[in-house]
Amino acid sequence: MLGRKNKGTIDSLIGISTRIEGNVRFQGGLRIDGQVKGNVVAEGDEPCMLVISEHAKVEGEVRAAHLVVNGEIVGPVYSSELLELQPRARITGDVNYKALEMHGGALVAGKLTHDQVGEPVLKLALSNT
After folding, report:
1. Cα 52 to Cα 63: distance, rounded to the nearest angstrom
2. PANTHER family of this UniProt entry (predicted)?
3. Segment holding 92, helix H or strand E
4. Domain boundaries, the chain
5. Is 97 exposed, middle or buried (0-12, 13-18, 19+ CB in 10 A)?
């Protein structure tokens, strides 16, 4: 359907060989495989999704409703809906979230703060590896 964005779709990609110095603002879905030295912030009231792949590194503030991290973030993180920390996630900075899913192997060097609106949701995924 033209004009309609499905929740969870990726509209844009920052490729593995791409390095950006400066802030990135996006709507819809964004996947980062490369490096960003600057803030990565979702804009607008539409649902959005940001994926930081295992090869990616972001140095700056990260803000998105649904955030999936399997790479490295150096800076504060804000997730207004769901934060998924995959096994290779590395965050150095304070993390603010509404719902958290953290897999074994993910590391956070900072303070975890739950958004106090509604019931707290914390899900730990443990693997046998």
Report:
1. 12
2. HYPOTHETICAL CYTOSOLIC PROTEIN (PTHR35024), POLYMER-FORMING CYTOSKELETAL PROTEIN (PTHR35024:SF4)
3. strand 90-92
4. 12-125
5. buried
Which two tokens mark 100? 């958290």
Longest CA–CA separation in the chain, Å: 44
| Number of CB atoms found within 10 A of residue 6's CB | 9
Q: What is the model's pLDDT at position 125? A: 58
Structure tokens at 24: 């990135």
DSSP string, 16-71: TT-EEES-EEESSEEEE-SEEES-EEE-SSS--EEEE-TT-EEES-EEEEEEEESS
Coil, strand or helix: which one is 122? strand
Query: Locate tokens 């503030």: which residue?
Result: 61
